[in-house]
Amino acid sequence: MTPTVRTSAPRRSLRRLLRDWAADCRGIAATEFAFIVPLMLVLFFGTVEFCSAIAINRKVSLTARTLSDLTSQSTSINSSDVAAFFLVASKIIWPYPMAQPNPFFASPVSGTITELYVDPTTHKARVQWSTGTAPLTAGNIVSTVPSALLVDGSYLIYSQVSYTYTPTVGWVMAKGGITLSDIAFTRPRQSSCVLFSGIDTTNCPQR
Fold this sequence. Notes:
Distance between the termini: 122 Å
Shape: elongated
Order of helices and strands: HHEHEEEEE
């Protein structure tokens, strides 16, 4: 006759406790939630910030083209005309934050309109006149002009726009913000060049 092995009550209780503990899933959901939520928040706010930056970058490009296009449609302009150009262009940036131009853009937006002359001697584009947030110095050479536009003796309207985008949260992008910028070139449409009253009153000078 085989003797019966009896398990003591404390040992049975310990086994039951371990079995119940292994089968208990009540804390798994809370643990997973604690791990996933920070990652999901970073992904969410990162997506929002990147989408906003892409949208503003597109608006910056459109603003640069608008400034160049409006200027190129005139034969001559003055300070009031430039202020109107910047006011129209500022509507493109809306609804993103910016100060109203008075008469030019103010932080976080900057913009400049410049007329260039391609010198037949040097084949370089030089500044005829410039106005805006940070105007270029007359006579300086602009090296960013594409070679296809460097036609000797011709004029170009050159616009520059930049926007400092500051993210709302700053978890993904730099909290200090990033600078988005673009440029545009347009040839004068109504005449060989666009005169600027008060800055250049001569007839398309070749400096």
